[in-house]
Every structure is written in C-alpha cells, then in structure tokens.
Amino acid sequence: MLKNQRDKIDKIDKQIVSLIEDRLQVVKEVAIIKKENGIPVLDSSREENLLTKVKSYTDDADLKKLYEEIFSTIMNHSKEQQNKLIEK
Ligand SMILES: O=C(O)C(=O)C[C@]1(C(=O)O)C=C[C@@H](O)C=C1
C-alpha cells in the first residue's frame, strides 16, 4: 500500500545523503585552505549569512525553523571535521 511512496522517500533520502557527502568533501577542501593560510575554522558571519539564505528559500515559518536546525547541525559537523583535519 505504502510501497510506492516509501520507495520514493528512500530514493530522496539517498540523494540527500549523497549531497551531504559532496558538501563535506568541499568542507574538507576549505579546511586545507584555512590550515595553509592560518584562517580560523569558525566563520560566524558566513554561518549567519548562510542560515539567512537557506531560510529565504521558503515562506513557511515551520520550514524556516527546520532549515535553521538542519543547517546548524550540518555546520557543527563541518567544524568538527575541519578541526580534526587541522589538528592532524
Ligand atoms: O565557509 C567556510 O568557511 C566553511 O568552513 C564552511 C562552513 C559550512 O559548513 O558551511 C563551516 C564552518 C564555518 O564556520 C562556516 C561555514
């Protein structure tokens, strides 16, 4: 009964995971550039701008909250990964 929709959800989830992995790859490239140039991992103004931008993609207040949570979590993970790479 739900198989069709669940198959679709599974496909979308796979795409989301793949995009997160692509993003993390770029975040690692950023870490190398930051390390080489002595730039701090944390860039609060970039994070603020990014959150403003992703929230602007919807008018729905609940979705704005969701995107803020998702992208804050993603960026926290990015920073952990970057710090690990830089400490190496
Ligand atoms: O844009 C950067 O400088 C990044 O390192 C990427 C990123 C992100 O995940 O989007 C991660 C950490 C920074 O605080 C800001 C943004």
Automatic annotation (TrEMBL):
<dbReference type="InterPro" id="IPR036979">
    <property type="entry name" value="CM_dom_sf"/>
</dbReference>
<dbReference type="InterPro" id="IPR011279">
    <property type="entry name" value="Chorismate_mutase_GmP"/>
</dbReference>
<dbReference type="InterPro" id="IPR036263">
    <property type="entry name" value="Chorismate_II_sf"/>
</dbReference>
<protein>
    <submittedName>
        <fullName>Chorismate mutase</fullName>
        <ecNumber>5.4.99.5</ecNumber>
    </submittedName>
</protein>
<feature type="domain" description="Chorismate mutase">
    <location>
        <begin position="1"/>
        <end position="86"/>
    </location>
</feature>
<dbReference type="Pfam" id="PF01817">
    <property type="entry name" value="CM_2"/>
</dbReference>
<dbReference type="GO" id="GO:0046417">
    <property type="term" value="P:chorismate metabolic process"/>
</dbReference>
<keyword id="KW-0413">Isomerase</keyword>
<dbReference type="InterPro" id="IPR051331">
    <property type="entry name" value="Chorismate_mutase-related"/>
</dbReference>
<dbReference type="GO" id="GO:0009697">
    <property type="term" value="P:salicylic acid biosynthetic process"/>
</dbReference>
<dbReference type="GO" id="GO:0004106">
    <property type="term" value="F:chorismate mutase activity"/>
</dbReference>
<dbReference type="InterPro" id="IPR002701">
    <property type="entry name" value="CM_II_prokaryot"/>
</dbReference>
